[in-house]
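User: Assemble these into one structure.

Assistant: Restating your components, then the assembled model:
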Amino acid sequence: MKQRITIDPITRLEGHGKIEIFLDDEGNVANTHFQIPELRGFEQFVVGRQVEEMPLITNRICGVCPEAHHMAAAKAIDAVYHVDPPPTAKKLRELLYMAFYVTDHTTHFYALGGPDFIMGPDAPVAERNILGVIHKVGLETASKVIQARKNGHRVIEIIGGRKVHPCTSIPGGLTKGITEDERSEIEKIGRSSIEFAQFTLKLFDEIVLKNKAYVDLILGDAYEHKTYYIGLVDDNNKINFYNGKVSVVSPDGERIGKYAPSEYREWIEERVEPWTYLKFPYLKKVGWKGLVDGKDSGVYCATPLSRLNASDGMATPLAQEEYERFFDTLGGKPVHKRLATHWARLVELLYAAEHLVELATDPEITSDNFRTIPKEKPTEGVGIVEAPRGTLTHHYWTDERGIVTKANLIVGTTNNYAPMSMSVKKAAQSLIKKGTIATEGLLNMVEMAFRLYDPCMSCATHSLPGQMPFEVTIRGADGQVIDVLRQYC
Amino acid sequence: MSANSKPKFAMYWGASCGGCEVAVLNTHEKILDIDANFDVVFWPVAMDAKYKDVEAMEDESILVTFYNGGIRTSENEHLAKLLRRKSKILVAFGSCASEGCIPGLANLYSKNELFNTVYAQRDGCSTVNPENIRPQQNWDAPEGSIQIPEFYSILRPINQVVDVDYYLPGCPPESERIAEVVDLVIQVIRGEAALPPKGSVIGAGASTVCDECKRSRNVKTIKKFVRIQDFMPDPSMCLLEQGIVCNGPATRSGCGALCPSAGAVCIGCYGVAEGVIDYGARMLSAVSSVIDSRNEKEIEKIIEGIPDPAGMFYRFSLASSLLGASKSAWHDKE
Amino acid sequence: MEEQQQFEPKIIGFTCNWCSYRAADLAGISRTKYPPNVRLIRLMCSGRLDPTFVFKAFSSGADGVLISGCHPGDCHYVDQNYKTMRRFALMEKMLVQMGFEQGRIKLVWASAGEGLQFAEAVTGMVETVRKLGPLDWHIRGQSNGHLTKELLLKEDVV
Amino acid sequence: MIEPRIGVYVCHCGTNIAGVVDVAEVSKWASEHLKGRGVVISRDYKFMCSSLGQELIEKDIKEYRLNRVVVAACSPHLHEATFRTATKSAGLNPYLTEMVSIREQDSWVHTDKIAATNKAKAMISGGVERVRYHEPLEPLHVPIHPATLVVGGGIAGIQAVLELADAGQKVYLVEREPSIGGHMAQFDKTFPTLDCSACILTPKMVSVGKHPNVELFTWSEVTNVEGYVGNFTVNIHKKARFVKEDICTGCSICQEKCPKKVIDDVFEAGLGYRKAVYTPFAQAIPNYPVIDKENCTYFQKGTCRACEKLCPTKAIDFTQEDQDISIQVGNIILATGYDLFDSRRIPQYGYARLANVFTSLEFERLSNSAGPTGGKVVLRDGVTEPKTVGIVHCVGSRDKNYNNYCSAICCMQSLKFAHLVEERTGAEVYNFYIDIRTPAKDYDEFYQRVLEEGTIFIRGKVAEVTDAARMAGEEGKIIIQVEDTLMGKQRRIPVDMVILSAGLEPRRDAKAVAKLFGISCSSAGWVIEKHPKLDPIATMTDGIFIAGCMQGPKDIPASVAQGAAAAARVLGRIQQKEIALEPIRATVNETQCSGCRICNNMCPYNAILFHEDRAVSEVNPALCQGCGTCIAACPAGAISGTGFSNEQVMAQIEGLLLLNLEAEPA
């Protein structure tokens, strides 16, 4: 009669997961399968729709980062119509996008990833959540957090028309501009966002970097993977979320190339596995060698950490300082310690806030030249933006009426499906030895491995509906279930 | 007061995008009210969920469950049924749960069409699949067999698998509306308010979006349908009168006409108006009625301006419409 | 033998009170024969025809829907049947998009004097729909898309 | 919804239904299978419409406390009223009855008894589901303004006016021309009695002219109609006459002195002249003239003013302006008449190309003693009497290239012409006809008489009328080419004069007039009556009646009859003082209405008004005719309709498809 323990599940990631862990005869981890069990089929059902609806339809792929899908789609339909939006339109879109980064990174740090550090990995689960965080950091900080999210969403609403699922991007620009009053409101918000970002970095300093246990955890090899990294950069190879080329660097930090949106197929391929609904993207030039590290494996990673690794710095002064401190502290580029992603996220938070102010104070920003009417026949177009959870690619084909005939989407989290699987496996390997029964703390380590990617399964499952119950099943060599760690969210 | 003496609250996502959760987080301070007035027993996005506890709970021991997301797989169905059993009040939260939402557009295609598009190798796309593999519900890994849930041929709103008490429309519901509903529930708990009749739509207006739209309106006659990228619309005049198909007239009020105010058309995320059975039928009938022609040929011509009626009139409500899905989806051969 | 086996489509017909319903009356008075597959619903005017009725008919098990009104220009409510004409055009376009074959839905203009024409239109439509075969929408409507055994059984009895 | 208790009654209609449908089986099926749907009792009976059948229903309603009734019998167009009355007399609201037409739609059109029986079951099931959603309805009562507007001063209109005025009611008569009288005033004799048209018409015109209850507007047109049955507000546009009506004595000196001669295309059909200041004819009512601006030298050149100088009462007033007068009436009778088919449209008949081809109206003027030739029948030269005359029937009628319909009066008119020609000139007369149609009283006798007078009848449609002589005796003549279908050979008949018996057509502006009054015309242009047999003088729009040729070609007696009939209907209305309207109406739920204004142009009766202030639309129940088009159009589902509600129709669909059996028991 087999021993069976059910342990409270992993949570706090937008979406869900299902992990199968098989043990060998010694009771060590033989293999793990990280499954994604659903399908929505956006790539199919956008076919037949009017292409200008793509920013409105595909932002329903994900309600956590609809802005990212809205923007990728917007840039794709610009390309479909061969139209170049006026500068004001581009800047407004990017401005919205910066505000979105501020809220999204904030949400992740305080509500999703942060609790692991703020409350501590061993804190009682019941407290390891946003409410727990609120109790620990105090209502004052809590209201700061709430205010920060509020601010970001206010900007999104001003430019995007709505707080969630913005609606203003159309081929050639936007349906509206902003007034001077709105601009100055946004500027105010931007300035307070900078303060908030700095405040958060300080908090991270005190709670994490000043805490040896955490630093060891970060620097430990339990969360290390030597993979390729990709990220969107500008002409000076500085991180850019909205525009530019995708920089690809190897595990030893060397840039092997940069590709423009239209070239993505020369770089990225996706693999289908029979045991999951989600595809595995990998670097075409390197090829698929399975879920393994190293220079020979096409597995790559697209996260805040990846972006820092793939770029030569930040385009804003304060963020640049943090960027340097980051690599100094962690021993230079590239950083393979996955837990550092949390820190990298905060560096990006600061950049987003700074750039938000830059854009809000741009003289062109209130111009009413916010759209160009397309003249050319619609054909085909690719749009790429950097979503918080990874590079986001939308590709549409249309007929001469601008009706979608084909679509191909590679979404943020999907990029990280392979590395996530590997991290989970590695964590499992280091935490389950000789069939040692996982305790809650140990299991939480698996959660952390998972969570640092801030995986957005609604996104990843753009070809799947967001729902993804997370279940860890541990099986003996005989395939018999030893242990089930389950959660349904 | 101790947590467990407070009424229990749960929020769960089915086949959804997470936007509903974000909308709840966007009630900002209200979250604290929820914390203060409820014992939040199950809310995966915000806190550690104890699924086994939920399973162990007595039936109807949760006072209110906000359920968002539609039913696409056997797993969705399982969870919807579980939470129905455990909850006194089940609220279909947001468009997906209420009417299927955008993912419901998948019902225009068969499961096979959908699988082929996603997994088969296609010209110009990034998927490489020489052995033409498809995900298997049951797969024998070298170490043993593993499963993924059954993927149904069509997506359904939750009221097609469980009994629903209230509907809270919107994609996502506006945070202000959510806050109002939370307040209402709190008042009910305190005995300061009564629950609306079962089956009611809550957190929404009684009329349609035009009621909240500031644009000027006139008697409507349409000679030509145009698309937003074709021209620069008059910012103060009804978009439909300018020939752009705006779903405002048929869409329930409650959002504050956000999209039309931002120069974009209403795409219909708040769903059907009070008492309406089929959203698409309403839009179709209204839009075609005001076509300005008595000549069959000319009417055909004008209608070419609406290249995708099913997509435009059932953008959010196909799964809950009378027809529910296209013929190919219904007749999908396994 | 074959007679018994052949599929008998169910067709719901909508008529206006003034022309097409009277055309049906006239067909009766003049004993013009047509197949019994059509069941009529009287509306005051074809302009009353809400597309909801059509979708309802299909989703309730109809294999075809016939819509008829006064000839364009002859409407007893001045010009309401032009609205019918417009709605029908868009409705048919949408149904085709959703996989309906041409002919499952038909618009017929019939004046009160055209009993024969009305009967002929019905006969023609029944033949068309018979060839197209059953739609059995409402059976599937109760499922998750897969036809279970029970549903298939039901399909036989209905 | 209160628990429905439904009675189902299946009529045998002798063997009409029972011969094909197994009525006993159907009734049994209903009581068994529809029990769960509220059917309390189900019966079949030989003749449901018989008094016994009705009593049966009344008895059951009381005995079984029925609150809904379904009668499966004939078409509701026959007996809906009957069974509503029966329900009512049992104390139930009449609108809680539903009829299912298993005769016209089942037993009479199907032969397969089993199929027909099954269909009857399905139809009854549909009726039962529908009637569950019926609501008690109360007719809407609106007061009737006692005054009436009659449009068109031809014989039909005149008759209507006199009936009403003599009955003591106020009547407004609007006539477009300077005088009333219409086409009849142009005729010389009227068939079949050949009494003089003027002699019988003028007295009526005179009494209209001086009737205390009649207010006459000639040289005027209706430009706007608002409101609904019982209280219409009508705007009349009165063109300036430039003659002071109050002081003109009609001495006609102005007409004699006016230097400007104008060809009279209207009254004299182009054969004669009038002056720029004129009354159309001697007995015109009113008999004071009008100045026709387009032709008056003063108005065109600024000099002359002869009439002004010579008028003994100084009645001429060049400064007069058009007026708009608004009147209130409760009912409207339209009698705007017809236009003559324009024979130029058939070039091969040579009209306007060959001098001596005349239209029927021209001949009426020729033969009229008050006409341009003083009644002498002569050729265009005005002197030569024709030796042979050909009369062509059905010109523009019964011809798919022009009008499919029969113009009804041409046969008798042509016979009349034949007689007059014969009488006045002794010429040889040929009548070319397709069929001779003389159905009314004394008409065929007149035909016999004309036959005896020696008129030659040739059966065949005339192919051509030409002056191209081909054989001897044809020179200088007009040749009529025709296939004599009785002899079965082509014939060429040379004549001196041809009379084209042109058909009648709707007024050129018939459609505009229909739109103005919110009524409908057939595609031909004749007004559609409420019921072609049972209500030929009413229209779909309550309070608007029609008389005379506006409804279709007809002769004088028929026009007079309709004028009188319309008047009688109006008098009935006036006496009731108020009218009950069918309670089939649309209403807007103002909370649900978003003011999107989709419905605003759905209504041909302008029953939907938009309140700018509250930004909602509203349906005026008195104007609404219940077509339901706005209900189907409303995107918010904010408009609902009584009698044919969504619930009723949706339920009937389920019933017809027997889904209710699955739902059982309700």
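Chain B is about 30% helix and 15% strand.
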